[in-house]
Each structure stands twice: as C-alpha cells, then as structure tokens.
Amino acid sequence: MMDLQKIYEKLLSKFVVDNWWPADSQFEIMVGAILTQQTTWEKVEEVIKKMKAQDLLNIETLASIDQEKLERIIMPVGFYRQKAERIKCLAAYLQNHYNSDPSLLLSKPLDEARNELLTIKGIGKETADAILLYAGHKGTFVAAKYCCRILMRTGLIRTDKYDDVKNFVEQNIPPDPKIYARLYALLVQLSKTHCRNKPQCQGCPLEDGCSFNQSKGK
Hints:
Layout: H1 4-14, H2 26-35, H3 41-53, H4 59-64, H5 67-74, H6 80-98, H7 102-106, H8 110-117, H9 125-135, H10 145-153, H11 162-172, H12 177-193, H13 211-215
C-alpha cells in the first residue's frame, strides 16, 4: 500500500495542475466556492464569466442586487436560489463587518477565520476550507467527496467523514498551502480521469498500489 506522500508524488508526475483556481480577486474565489457546490467547474466558469461581463463581482453590488436577478444569472450552476441567497449573505457580511475587504477576514489566524466563515449562512466546512486554502493561502485541506473516495479505494482510510479525512491528510502532509492546493487538485483530476463513481483502473497512475484495484484480481 502506498502512503499519502507517495500518492502525491505519483499524481504530480502524471498531471499538471498549476493555476488550478484562476481568479482576479479573493472575493471571486469566495463566490466561486459557493457556486461550485454540487456542480461542475465548467458551469461555474460560465457563470463567473457572465458575472464579470456584467461587472457583478463586486461586494457592494452583490450585497444590494435583487436576488431574483442574481438567480437568473447563476441559474446554470443549479440550486441557484440557495446559492444566490448565500452569495448575498456573504457579500453583506463582508460589507458590514470588513468594509468590503475580504483580506481582513482571511488574514486572521486559520482557526479563527474558519470558525467565522462557518457562521455565514450557506458556508459549510468544505466551502470554508476551499476559501481559506485558495483565497487565504492557509494550510487547511479540502476533504471533498472525490478525495475521500480515492483515499478509501487506495486503502489509506476507512471512513468518508469530512473531519476524519481532513485530519488524516493534515497529519500526514505538512501544512503547506501550496502542497494542499496541489494535492486537492491532483485528486480531483484523478477522479475525473480514472477514479470515477465507476472506476477506470486501467492506466491509473495509482493502480499498482491501490487496494481496490488489487482486490479485483482476487
């Protein structure tokens, strides 16, 4: 069985994931983290592009925009009513508490910033960690379902509970935001090419040391 560091190295030699979450601002990443809930990144990119074209990626604008108008704009990402409300809540919070400067929140110590993000409606653990990792450059891992699936299949973990998976990664990889961001991106990439819901093990860069793949031959 491979350890987590070996998995990271193997995937790094297979995939290119630099500039995984391109954005023009911290706030754009925060909005993207809400939009990407339960949808594909391709749809998020489409909506972000539309919002930029209408000059909407602005805290004051999104705090005051008519919610139904925002719903129509972000409709392609699904769950658009909930997401529109969540984006408006986030924008209003940053406007009221941080004078529309998200860096003031994201520059706080990791645990303090994370706990505060979790008080904002619609921001759960995964979304908060994505914001802190990619917008705040904090050493916190995003234990998305894709990551859980891969680590369970390789035999490294036996649980898909968010906190357990997050703690496992953070105990086995030093808290370097660049490494965490890259590892997350690598695991997501693998989940698209090979470790899907129905796995395509042939040609997978982890097939030689994967417990799931080895069990198929028994």
